[in-house]
Amino acid sequence: MFSYRHAFHAGSHADILKHLTLVHLVEYLQEKPGALTIVDTHAGAGIYSLIDGFASVSKEADGGIYRLMEYAASNPISEGIQNYLSLIQAENTADEMSIYPGSPFILARLLRPQDRLKLFELHPKEIDILRHNISELKQAKQIDVYAADSFSRLKGLLPPPSRRGLVLIDPSYEDKQDYRYLEAAMEEALQRFATGCYAIWYPVLSRRESADLPGRMKKIAALHKRSWLHTELRVENAPKERRLQASGMFIINPPWTLEKHLAESLPILVKALGQDVGAQYLLNSFEA
């Protein structure tokens, strides 16, 4: 259960898809002045070094954020990608890209004074690192960190006092039970807070649970009469390769601007990050 460390995957193509989507969701929801509560269910350590530790072993950033930065230096990119890259660059010096902020740091940097961020992490080593990293931020007083199972605790945070909320659900899925826990958590969440925005990240794998996840989320959204958006980004198609080649996001109650935002950015990501002719993207939606 505790073998997964997100630092191995920091700055990967999966992080890029997740964070590009996440930034747009937050910025859209912040167009209204009311307080926004954001929940990150699997926070990890919060921020990662790309030049030492786990990330330097996996080198997934080489085919992710480093590749995208190189592409952006000499090619036109969308406004959404530029906004995302600006947040990544803000954690680095002008002449070196050595740090990648995870979802907690990206979200923390986007907080307005009235907003709140709730972070969950169960890994016994990651939680201590996360607490230390968050304590260094000027937004620390707006952030709560929980060493708890987010799937069982999420319903207790819903609905937020302002009735405006964004929930990022991004487990590792190393435990196959995570798929079942996700379904149960979403059923409970929509019963308690039907109008919340829910952003679910998942790896695209050959296992049945992964292949079935989008369809099961569509059924849950339909049961609660909610709109949804589904997207996937594949950077290569090498069946014998074990590394992750594609990932997806499933958004329940997406803002109306998200599909256009992704339609502008995903073709660029395919060009920038694609490893072979199998690189492609998927984007579809349903309005309830």
Tell me what the structure shows.
This protein is of the alpha/beta class and 288 residues long. It has a single domain, classed as Rossmann fold (3-Layer(aba) Sandwich). It is 39% helix and 18% strand. The strands form 2 sheets. An 8-stranded mixed sheet has the order 5-4-1-6-7-9-8-10, with helices on both faces. Strands 2-3 form a two-stranded antiparallel sheet. Helix 6 links the parallel strand 4 (116-120) and strand 5. The chain is globular. 45% of the residues are buried.
In short:
With 288 residues, the protein is an alpha/beta fold.
Strand and helix layout:
Layout: H1 13-29, E1 37-40, E2 47-49, H2 54-58, H3 65-72, H4 79-89, E3 99-101, H5 103-110, E4 116-120, H6 126-135, E5 143-146, H7 150-153, E6 165-169, H8 177-192, E7 197-203, H9 208-223, E8 228-234, E9 246-252, H10 258-273, E10 280-286
Parallel strand pairs: 1-4, 1-6, 4-5, 6-7
Antiparallel strand pairs: 2-3, 7-9, 8-9, 8-10
Helix pairs in contact: 1-4, 1-5, 1-10, 8-9
Shape: globular
Biggest pleated sheet = 8 strands, mixed
- Please give the alpha-carbon distance between the first and last residues: 37 Å
In CATH, the homologous superfamily goes by the name Vaccinia Virus protein VP39
Could you tell me the mean pLDDT?
A: 94
CATH architecture: 3-Layer(aba) Sandwich
How much helicity do the residues have? 25-40%
Number of domains: 1
Radius of gyration: 18 Å
The counted number of beta strands is: 10
Major beta sheet, strand line-up: 5-4-1-6-7-9-8-10
Subunit organisation of the chains: single chain
Poorly predicted tracts of residues:
none
Number of helices: 10
H/E element sequence: HEEHHHEHEHEHEHEHEEHE
**In percent, how much strand structure appears in the residues?**
15-25%
What's the CATH class label? Alpha Beta
